[in-house]
Amino acid sequence: MKKRKRWGLALAAGLVVFGLTGCGHGSGSGEKRIVRIGHNQSQNHPTHIALTAFQEFINEKLGDKYQVEVYPGELLGSQAEMVQLTQTGAIDYCIASNSILETFSENWSIFNLPFLFSSAQAYHAAMDDPKVTDSIFEASKKAGFVAVTWLDAGTRNFYTMNKPINSPKDLKGLKIRVQQSPTNIEMMRLLGGSATPMGFGEVYTALQSGIIDGAENNELALTDNGHGDVCKYYSYDMHQMVPDIVIGNVAFMESLTREEQAIFEEGYQLINRVQREEWTKAVEAAKNRAQREQGVEFLYPDTAPFREAVISLHESILSANPDLQPIYDKIQDYNAQYTEEAEEERDGVETEKSRRVS
Ligand code: GCU
What we know:
D-Maltodextrin-Binding Protein, domain 2; 49% helix; binds alpha-D-glucopyranuronic acid
């Protein structure tokens, strides 16, 4: 992993030196403009599958002028590094967790709030509504990037090596890896654990060497990233639904003609569609594999004490950023609209619980 990362950074540095000018990118020379997209997931991950569909789509529609290249697995650096490369235009797009973006503009903090969405349906409906996302997606334009679409990254839950988490009390004294975002660090503090922020690519080694006792993420981290080889307890406390965001370099996007922009826009929607279709299947498969092959035990604690411990964060973020209030209210409308679904999700968890008990 370390070796790969060094290569990644060297490659990224090379892109900064050679990539910025668009050299070899074919401005008028008959060469194609290479469009580089980086992400930190494996090649089996729904995000990679979706980006490959985008690559094929753009290469088919605009292949005489553009050649899309997708770089998986932190080949271009960590997520935070890739955001910086996208900002400067050394690469054209990357996938960043919404959490990482918070350090570029506080507006992004809204989608990092724990227990913001009451069900997956409310989450999807809100993220699909331009009234909820538009101003946030444009929030970092001055910094050099905008969001072009969002991706499902499921529900984040705690998983640990030795100690099952059944209530926030169980987190006390445990070092838990969180994403590098002020909201996530504060969330962990409120829950009573000790927040250890680090990049995603470092988590496996940190778990293995005992630097941390656990982490929090969706089910795919167990299988795709091997965390389930080390952590045997996964607790559905359901604390966050943090979307992944596809961001693009503003200068590149503005360099496209109107017609090309329309085709790229179609491509962004394709990424969203394919990733979400693949996501549902991938979560189910990851859960089965983690249970059968890695021996991970899935726990279903009462989520209410987790929610109570962190809900004050909503107020803190809103009072620090009052402009977010209308967006927050709109999300609450979706939560109200999808209460039945929230109940069904809870019932699903109950059924799962009783199935395991019997
Ligand atoms: C999820 C998410 C990634 C993120 C990772 C993390 O896997 O999809 O974008 O980097 O969590 O916890 O850092």
